[in-house]
Specification:
single chain, six-stranded antiparallel β-sheet
Length: 137
């Protein structure tokens, strides 16, 4: 199966970085140490779609599919820490971080997509004392 990766949204990457910063402040979060390491990468956005339950119930099929956001991979070293979903507004602009998902699913998703994922590094998360900065590359 081929995955079509998307052009990163600067605002989307920024929303993901902000979410990572919030998670990194939680000392009991399972990835606290990795998020504090300054080695967290955001990469390989791919589109997510909404089939629309109502349209499907009315007999519509794939023609009713609408792009609803981007899913980014979040990695520290060789570990895929999370997937991060950014929701679009009605104009197709990144609106909000709708989820940071971590655990076995995130690791499996990263491993499955890694062979196809573009090598472009979209963002990184640095931690410097009490202040943290993120940058989109």
């Amino acid at each position: 199966m081929n995955i079509r990766f998307a052009q990163a949204s600067e605002q989307g990457s920024k929303l993901v970085l902000e979410g990572l910063l919030r998670l990194g402040r939680r000392p009991h979060h399972p990835h606290h140490q990795a998020l504090q390491s300054g080695n967290t990468l955001i990469h390989s956005p791919h589109p997510i779609f909404d089939l629309g339950g109502e349209a499907l119930a009315m007999g519509s099929g794939l023609e009713s599919v609408k792009a609803s956001g981007l899913r980014y991979l979040v990695k520290a070293g060789d570990t895929h820490l999370a997937t991060a979903e950014v929701q679009f507004d009605a104009h197709g602009q990144a609106k909000m971080l709708s989820g940071l998902h971590y655990g076995p699913h995130a690791q499996a998703t990263g491993e499955a997509l890694a062979p196809q994922a573009p090598l472009q590094r979209l963002g990184h998360h640095h931690h410097a004392g009490a202040a943290a900065k993120g940058a989109v590359v």
